[in-house]
Amino acid sequence: CSSLHHQTNLTDFCGFVKNTSSCDIDDGFINYTQLLYCSFSDIPIWLACIFLFIWWLFLFCGLAVTADDFFCPSLAVISESLRLSHNGVTFLAFGNGAPDIFSAIASIGNAKGGDAGLAIGALFGAGVFVTAVVAGSISIIKPFKSMERPFLRDVIFYLAATYWAWWVMWDKKITQMEAAGFIILYVVYVIVVVAGRYINQKLKKRIGQEISSVIDNGFVDALHDDNSSGVLESGVANMYRTSPGSNVQIEESTLLLHHTQKRNNTVVRNFLDDINPIVPEEWREKRCLGKMYEIFKSPLVLLLKLTVPVVSVKVEDDPEDIQNWNRLLNSVHVFTGPVFGIFVIGVGFNEIGGVFPIYGIVIIVCAILAVIVYFTSKTDERPVYHTAFAFLGFVVAVIWIYSIANEIVNILQAFGVVLDLSDAILGLTLLAWGNSIGDLIADTTMARQGYPRMGISACFGGPLFNLLLGLGIPFTIACFNNGGTFHLKITFEEMILAGGLAVSLISSLVIVTFSKFQMSRPYGIYLLCLYVAFLTVAVLTEVNIIPNFTL
User: Fold this and answer.
1) What CA–CA distance (Å, rounded) separates 130 from 123?
2) Which of 113, 116, 175, 168 is CA-nearest to residue 483?
3) Which segments of 276-397 are extended strands (E)?
């Protein structure tokens, strides 16, 4: 489709786009290339791109809101109800990496002729950004000593994943087993993390018992022994370490006030309060930019609140906590969630037996269930089946995230056609920066608050999760759909991306190890310079100052 710019004497751009198969979209709702060259043909292309860029920002905000405010709470409640670990490397890690993973699935699903450059650029680009820019910023803001074992474990696993991805790119094809290998490697990583923590906790418990015994015997001076104090310091430091992914944090005071007000309101008033996309208490505390952001995202938040049920994590020691139960709104969710889902995934108009459409059955069944839920529940008391709404919310939120990710990918591909840019550079910049800006803000904030170890841990564990499942899941699906092998179109620019990530990881491993795990300001400055050099080489390759060619 990008060859549009290289056609001589071409005046009918709209006709070219409509008649070129590579300009079509495989998933999504809008063909943005046709939108720019056909629907917006009466206005300058640069103005049309500005409108499209604003829409892209809106969707990116929607992706973040859906993951943070609707997807993650459902995961937290599900993991609690299934008694799953909250250590961050299993179920809940998926919440933090959901935008990256679903963007990768959408990118590879829309790949034309094996060109997965958008996914590769985003995953490797985000990896370099987080391990260089975010980690470097943390080291500059708050120099500290890193935890040895977790740092070495995460960097070594990340290097192994990077090498595996590089080998697949060099081979220019990926088999079913190679794709599944990414997922298997993540399972091995989880086992190592869980086993390591179990052993570490056992050791700390045994050491604690020994120290208690020493204290009981009156040998308090033994606490000042170098070995004992070192173990104690390590144990306390481990308490501050976080794993890939972040646990969902609930503002308990706000929830308590909210459900107290609910008990005093009518059913309709509770419904209107809960679908309000702007929370009045939060609105009053926000500054001008914060209020503009709330207004900007409010249309999508309203739709999300009408279709995705959110069950909050139970507030401890509060028997009156109804966990965000809303009798009328949750009854509406029983209808709107499934109906929205079947139309978005494209099965609503399929017919059963060639006679009855699926949407008809879903509408009838869900309407009956919604009435049952309403008349078998109370306004001020959550029903016994309330936890089931977390599973419904999880499914509908996944559909929302995947749908938004598809639109984001399609917009980026349209920008690539208009600007004559490769998918790799778009993934490296717009998609990678968009997915990683939240990490930069969150991790540097933790560093300023005195918790740099939390931030630096997420800098290596989080991107590792995204790379392994961001390649493993979509390529497994692609291999299944292509007879067991998916052939890749790889350029020299994409190999530079893999090389840049490898350089970042290897240099961090060497420098931090030889500096006795001190994260210093010079190290942080080096990482920032490394990212600038990496981005410069990638841009020079994109514009062919450094020759870019297909391998």
Assistant:
1) 11
2) 175
3) 351-352, 356-357
